[in-house]
């Protein structure tokens, strides 16, 4: 069906569409048909002038508008007939008694031109099938051989004038293609007006549906968020959860660190060696604790004295006065203190084991 040339209606140029659909191509334009119409008007004027240019009939003819064309784009049967003569084609009135007496079966013809109330359209055989090429249709309409006679009879009853096109039509691609294949049409084309009305009805139904939905679910600004807003809110909530988790983890790490520091301090205080005459733990001042750390650091640098430290904690003034940890950081000093407390616990365990 795509190979069939079908010119759709524009304005009142149905005569142009009728001719081009018949010939299967853009053979005529409004300018060319207007030129033919003006030529016909001039021929008629010259015939009327033969009776005298001063006659009443001649003056009346000049005052009348052209009968071959008008400003809307309508062209008369005379214009169409003269346009087809260029191609060696002739029009014969199908309704005439003379043609009816010939008893020719319409299926044996090649094409028809139909007219009713200034509208022209073509019915043509392409290949082995008939098509209604009315420019008011959205596309070519397939007509079966059995329905062709009924279709033409129906047009006659509706008041159409039908003309048989006699002569050899120019070759066209659609005719050559449809000589080899036959087409089927599942859905018949609609009139352009009906199609536009159908599309308009669909738009109106959609508008009515939208209005109905809006009326049943009015939007007051507090309704559901759209998808983008919901995604944004979800992302913000997840971000807040991650921040809260990070804060909790930071608090937990801080508490563990404080707990470890507290335990270290407790161990240092509890693990200070007891005096020989007392069973309770003696509290050391910060200065004494510093001196013990310094002594421990000094012993760490003298591996040969480690065994002696395990057996007898050194408290001599010479050892305490050695200052080797002044250059260490607070974190290193704390680690060293923890190591010293572990050494003290180990010594106490050994002492208890000997007892």
UniProtKB/TrEMBL annotation:
Residues 318-331 have a biased composition (Acidic residues). Its EC number is 3.4.19.12. GO terms for molecular function: cysteine-type deubiquitinase activity. Residues 1-180 form the Josephin domain. One of its GO terms (biological process) is protein quality control for misfolded or incompletely synthesized proteins. It catalyses: Thiol-dependent hydrolysis of ester, thioester, amide, peptide and isopeptide bonds formed by the C-terminal Gly of ubiquitin (a 76-residue protein attached to proteins as an intracellular targeting signal). Keywords: Coiled coil, Hydrolase, Nucleus, Protease, Repeat, Thiol protease, Transcription, Transcription regulation, Ubl conjugation pathway. One of its GO terms (cellular component) is nucleus. The active site is at residues 14, 119, 134. It holds the Pfam family Josephin. It is found in: Nucleus. Residues 260-279 have a biased composition (Polar residues). Residues 260-331 are annotated as: Disordered. The keyword DNA repair does not apply. Residues 229-258 form a coiled coil. Residues 287-297 have a biased composition (Basic and acidic residues). It comes from the Eukaryota. PANTHER family: ATAXIN-3-RELATED. This is ubiquitinyl hydrolase 1. It comes from Monodelphis domestica.
